[in-house]
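Subject: mismatched residue count in predicted assembly?

I count 231 residues in my input, but I want to confirm that the predicted structure covers every chain. Input:
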Amino acid sequence: DGGITQSPKYLFRKEGQNVTLSCEQNLNHDAMYWYRQDPGQGLRLIYYSQIVNDFQKGDIAEGYSVSREKKESFPLTVTSAQKNPTAFYLCASSTTRGIVAQHFGDGTRLSIL
Amino acid sequence: AQTVTQSQPEMSVQEAETVTLSCTYDTSESDYYLFWYKQPPSRQMILVIRQEAYKQQNATENRFSVNFQKAAKSFSLKISDSQLGDAAMYFCAYRSTISSGSARQLTFGSGTQLTVLP
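Triage response: the counts match. Full output below for your records.
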């Protein structure tokens, strides 16, 4: 079945540590996105990529980094510079033509140890 | 920049009844897309329904329908014959039709938590 796979489901970070969240899609979508969701709030865009080897900052990119070396993969690294990383992280993908509805993965919950 | 407002943080509905969730948005664009997403306790975001602004006809998907009022910039979601499985957080989202830069992102409202009472 086609879809988006995020791993791990739960992740814990120690102070000063970088952690990487995985996102893989087999929908053949060109565009991929990372969102952050805090309790009781909507989703805020961290980074997005419309094509391999290209990505753009979203509204809250500080303290995060991404790469897009393959069409299927868009990993997100939460760096030690992100002082409040505890949140739920959602990855999404979409085509780049037409109504472009985004399809989401199941998310990763990141917590601080 | 576009903004999306959901003014009802929480709503409840009796099973088998009808409920309407409100959403308003602010934009200077004439063409755009609007979406409703559902987020159940599993936290997965599920697309419920979508509307293209240039279409006057309101979108429907089985028990879900929208009331799209472009002049008022309103996009409400109606759930008919509510079921226990409809209980979730519902998010309204806006997307520009412009194909460059950050215009591709979805702008989300803050969500409405829907409780379905048996």
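The first strand of chain A starts at residue 4 and ends at 7. Marking this ticket as 'not a bug'.
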